[in-house]
Amino acid sequence: MPGLCSGDLVGGLGLTEPGAGSDALGSMATTARRDGDDYVINGSKIYITNGPIADVILLYAKTDKSKGAKGISAFIIETDNPGFKVAQKLDKMGFRGSPTGELVFEDCRVPASAMLGVENSGVAVVMSGLDLERAMVASVCVGMAERALELGLEYAKMREQFGKPIASFQMMQSKLAEIYTEVETARAFSYRALAACVGLPKGAGGRGEIHKLTAAACLYAGEAFNKAVTEACHIHGGSGYMQDTEINRLFRANKLLEIGAGTSEVRKIIIAEELLRA
Ligand SMILES: Cc1cc2nc3c(=O)[nH]c(=O)nc-3n(C[C@H](O)[C@H](O)[C@H](O)COP(=O)(O)OP(=O)(O)OC[C@H]3O[C@@H](n4cnc5c(N)ncnc54)[C@H](O)[C@@H]3O)c2cc1C
Questions:
Q1: For the segment 114-141, what is each residue's pLDDT rounded down to a tens digit?
Q2: d(CA 47, CA 93)
């Protein structure tokens, strides 16, 4: 932990698999078999952020196949383990500053002390972390939408057509006003979700109000960023379509914010389940 906090070590989170995305827990095929004082891990993980350069991976694997999602455990894997390998670094349309990859575990032997929590308690570990991740993703969306607004404003004031700045055209002004409204609405909702995370007791995530609220803030902020960056890119005309412009980089990054930490559909499923449970 000290190394991860100081930035000397890079961490990754290995949950998603080729056959287990939105249903990451139910369809998980990676296994960890107890063998004496060790566990032996076999399987693969895909789309893992920082996977190709990680020093340590928080890995989820099935320790009891008969229990389905309730038979999953969490492990801390150091990537100098001979049973670990990076199968490939994937080529992404956005967020290219951090590498994403496919990881393979072949008879990867770890001591039982590498388990985080107790056997078959992995679901609680995933769920508590995912709520905080969604609150964080919502804030990332707000920051990126805010930057899209700044870029749209700058360009609209600077770019002239028909002898005047395009910012003087009401249809461009309408876009700017809509982007601003999305940014501020997403900001208020995200702050509310973040405030609810403060002092959250250990293990309290993954259900109830915090589960619903963080999924909703993340859903809203992801969609708000999508609308904001799409309109800001449009204000840039043809230049927004060029890969080397900042607005284009934001546009390409946008899609991930509606996929990672659970897709928009998964976020809606969580919200509806909690509403109907109450
Ligand atoms: C750049 C990037 C980085 C990532 N980093 C990580 C990481 O570090 N660690 C990690 O573990 N994972 C990571 N992921 C994986 C990410 O969490 C998954 O891609 C995501 O959960 C969706 O899974 P999937 O891609 O298999 O899509 P699928 O689950 O196959 O979904 C395909 C489509 O079907 C929809 N769908 C699925 N089920 C339902 C349903 N019940 N109802 C309605 N619609 C449904 C989805 O919403 C989606 O639109 C990353 C992904 C990307 C792209």
A1: 999 999 999 988 887 899 999 999 999 9
A2: 13
Alpha-carbon gap, residue 74 to 54, rounded angstroms: 17
Marked catalytic residue, from 17, 102, 119, 133:
133
Instruction: Give residue 172 CA to ligand 1 midpoint distance, Å.
Output: 35
| pLDDT band at residue 206 under the 50/70/90 scheme | confident
Nearest ligand 1 atom to the CA of 51 is 8
User: Active site includes 133?
Assistant: yes
- Ligand 1 center to 166 CA (angstroms): 39
pLDDT in tens, 26-38: 999 999 999 999 9
* Gap from CA of 21 to ligand 1 centroid (Å): 5
Mark out the alpha helices in the chain (DSSP H runs). Answer: 2-6, 122-158, 170-197, 208-235, 246-254, 264-277
State the Cα–Cα distance between residues 119 and 21, nearest whole angstrom: 22
